[in-house]
């Protein structure tokens, strides 16, 4: 397993993160356990702030869908980033953490009236409007409360990013955004400019996630800038903000080649500035929305090894006490991960095994064919780069409680999400009176 951030192997031969022995973390907090490396999370935030905000005057807005809780909100604010939310629940979390509403961008392709009302009432900085239905609804609602909603229109630039089909979002055939090529985007702009309850600030696109080819961002930026110029030429409106979304890839397993944040910033900003110069228009304020590239590498999940099943000549299965309930990505996207035995981190691999989850599904496999030291029941398996889309996509399938999460740094471990209990699982269950009394 590739070590990153504050990871190291200590004198006991155990994996250590943030100065904390992961074997001790497992003993203290139980497993499965999400571990968040505070120093690495903060450094990734600072890299975006430095390379986009300080160098180019752009704005980095953390994508909360990747990992969000009260502690994460506070850290993101302290590091000077804005926050991208995609639901009323995410917005509620941000507000409960006292995140400044004016620095919140509210996304989503089907926001409810209640969610839009919440956004208007709390004064979020930008509402990223996805479609004409939402635009009309928001205009009407803003008018009813005597407000003008600051809006960015989400567009579809027609870029086919090289990533998994389920996380491509910039192609024409997508549930997100107004298509540029067929005229929907321009129609949306014209309609927004006519509305009394809408203040059109700019346009947005997001071409996908886990992207390594920076040329995709350059091409998307050029298309978006050409559209900004077309809007200016046809309507006289010079859009001041260009939100290019996120999606920068991270290292999960051998073969992944993530690009430095500085290089990403340089490629993207160069494309925007060149097009602005070509068209003789001001460079708009650029906004980026990193999520995975901030929190992904900062997260590790600890599991306890249980049953071991050997099928001679076929495969050896090592089962752990978690799986798709706390990390559905391998089942959803065939996502790959690396891992080590945290209590044997100083030992060399001895065998190839496959790591199975405990859910009652054949597809609940965390890692296929990984080289590890000889695994035994009770060992602690550490899976790296689980900070993004693990906790936020976790579920209670098979009525498994969601794991706890700890924030580690400088030898200190602090609980930032408590482990769910069985009582939590039935908290919303109700028994009708007739069933409670045993009658039909």
TrEMBL record:
<feature type="binding site">
    <location>
        <position position="329"/>
    </location>
    <ligand>
        <name>substrate</name>
    </ligand>
</feature>
<feature type="binding site">
    <location>
        <position position="389"/>
    </location>
    <ligand>
        <name>pyridoxal 5'-phosphate</name>
    </ligand>
</feature>
<feature type="active site" description="Proton donor">
    <location>
        <position position="360"/>
    </location>
</feature>
<dbReference type="GO" id="GO:0008836">
    <property type="term" value="F:diaminopimelate decarboxylase activity"/>
</dbReference>
<dbReference type="GO" id="GO:0030170">
    <property type="term" value="F:pyridoxal phosphate binding"/>
</dbReference>
<keyword id="KW-0663">Pyridoxal phosphate</keyword>
<feature type="binding site">
    <location>
        <begin position="289"/>
        <end position="292"/>
    </location>
    <ligand>
        <name>pyridoxal 5'-phosphate</name>
    </ligand>
</feature>
<keyword id="KW-0210">Decarboxylase</keyword>
<feature type="domain" description="Orn/DAP/Arg decarboxylase 2 N-terminal">
    <location>
        <begin position="43"/>
        <end position="295"/>
    </location>
</feature>
<comment type="function">
    <text>Specifically catalyzes the decarboxylation of meso-diaminopimelate (meso-DAP) to L-lysine.</text>
</comment>
<keyword id="KW-0456">Lyase</keyword>
<dbReference type="InterPro" id="IPR022657">
    <property type="entry name" value="De-COase2_CS"/>
</dbReference>
<dbReference type="InterPro" id="IPR029066">
    <property type="entry name" value="PLP-binding_barrel"/>
</dbReference>
<feature type="binding site">
    <location>
        <position position="247"/>
    </location>
    <ligand>
        <name>pyridoxal 5'-phosphate</name>
    </ligand>
</feature>
<comment type="subunit">
    <text>Homodimer.</text>
</comment>
<dbReference type="InterPro" id="IPR002986">
    <property type="entry name" value="DAP_deCOOHase_LysA"/>
</dbReference>
<feature type="modified residue" description="N6-(pyridoxal phosphate)lysine">
    <location>
        <position position="65"/>
    </location>
</feature>
<comment type="pathway">
    <text>Amino-acid biosynthesis; L-lysine biosynthesis via DAP pathway; L-lysine from DL-2,6-diaminopimelate: step 1/1.</text>
</comment>
<comment type="similarity">
    <text>Belongs to the Orn/Lys/Arg decarboxylase class-II family. LysA subfamily.</text>
</comment>
<dbReference type="Pfam" id="PF02784">
    <property type="entry name" value="Orn_Arg_deC_N"/>
</dbReference>
<dbReference type="InterPro" id="IPR022644">
    <property type="entry name" value="De-COase2_N"/>
</dbReference>
<keyword id="KW-0028">Amino-acid biosynthesis</keyword>
<dbReference type="InterPro" id="IPR000183">
    <property type="entry name" value="Orn/DAP/Arg_de-COase"/>
</dbReference>
<protein>
    <recommendedName>
        <fullName>Diaminopimelate decarboxylase</fullName>
        <ecNumber>4.1.1.20</ecNumber>
    </recommendedName>
</protein>
<feature type="binding site">
    <location>
        <position position="292"/>
    </location>
    <ligand>
        <name>substrate</name>
    </ligand>
</feature>
<feature type="binding site">
    <location>
        <position position="361"/>
    </location>
    <ligand>
        <name>substrate</name>
    </ligand>
</feature>
<keyword id="KW-0457">Lysine biosynthesis</keyword>
<dbReference type="InterPro" id="IPR009006">
    <property type="entry name" value="Ala_racemase/Decarboxylase_C"/>
</dbReference>
<feature type="binding site">
    <location>
        <position position="333"/>
    </location>
    <ligand>
        <name>substrate</name>
    </ligand>
</feature>
<dbReference type="GO" id="GO:0009089">
    <property type="term" value="P:lysine biosynthetic process via diaminopimelate"/>
</dbReference>
<feature type="binding site">
    <location>
        <position position="389"/>
    </location>
    <ligand>
        <name>substrate</name>
    </ligand>
</feature>
């Amino acid at each position: 397993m590739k070590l990153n951030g504050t990871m190291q192997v200590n004198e006991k031969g155990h994996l250590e993160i943030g100065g904390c022995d992961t074997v001790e973390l497992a003993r203290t907090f139980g497993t499965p356990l999400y571990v968040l490396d505070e120093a690495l999370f903060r450094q990734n935030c600072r890299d975006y702030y430095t390379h986009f905000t300080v160098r180019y005057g752009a704005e980095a807005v953390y994508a909360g869908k990747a990992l969000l809780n009260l502690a994460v909100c506070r850290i993101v604010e302290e590091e000077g980033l804005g926050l991208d939310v995609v639901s009323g629940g995410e917005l509620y979390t941000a507000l409960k953490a006292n995140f400044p509403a004016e620095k919140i961008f509210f996304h989503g392709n089907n926001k409810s009236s209640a969610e839009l009302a919440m956004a208007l009432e709390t004064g979020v900085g930008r509402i990223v409007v996805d479609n004409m239905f939402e635009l009309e609804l928001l205009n009407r609602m803003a008018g009813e409360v005597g407000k003008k909603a600051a809006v960015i229109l989400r567009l579809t630039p027609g870029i086919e990013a090289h990533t998994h089909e389920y996380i491509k979002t910039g192609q024409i055939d997508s549930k997100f955004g107004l298509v540029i090529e067929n005229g929907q985007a321009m129609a949306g702009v014209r309609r927004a400019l006519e509305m009394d309850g809408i203040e059109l600030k700019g346009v947005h696109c997001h071409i996908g996630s886990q992207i390594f080819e920076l040329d995709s961002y350059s091409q998307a930026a050029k298309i978006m800038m050409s559209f900004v110029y077309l809007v200016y030429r046809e309507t006289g409106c010079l859009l001041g903000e260009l939100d290019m979304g996120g999606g920068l890839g991270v290292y999960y397993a051998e073969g992944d080649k993530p690009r430095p944040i500085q290089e990403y910033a340089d490629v993207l900003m160069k494309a925007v500035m060149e097009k602005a110069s070509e068209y003789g228009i001001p460079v708009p304020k650029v906004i980026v929305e990193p999520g995975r590239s901030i929190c992904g590498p900062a997260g590790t999940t600890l599991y306890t090894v249980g049953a071991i099943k050997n099928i001679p000549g076929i495969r050896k299965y090592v089962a752990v006490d978690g799986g798709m309930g706390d990390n559905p990505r391998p089942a959803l996207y065939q996502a790959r991960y690396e891992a080590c035995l945290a209590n044997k981190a100083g030992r060399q691999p001895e065998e190839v095994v496959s790591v199975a989850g405990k859910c009652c599904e054949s597809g609940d496999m965390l890692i296929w064919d990984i080289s590890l030291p000889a695994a035994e029941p009770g060992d602690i398996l550490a899976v790296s780069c689980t900070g993004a889309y693990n906790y936020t996509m976790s579920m209670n399938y098979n009525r498994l409680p969601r794991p706890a999460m700890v924030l580690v740094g400088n030898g200190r471990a602090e609980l930032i999400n408590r482990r769910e209990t069985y009582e939590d699982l039935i908290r919303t269950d109700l028994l009708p009176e007739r069933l409670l009394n045993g009658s039909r």
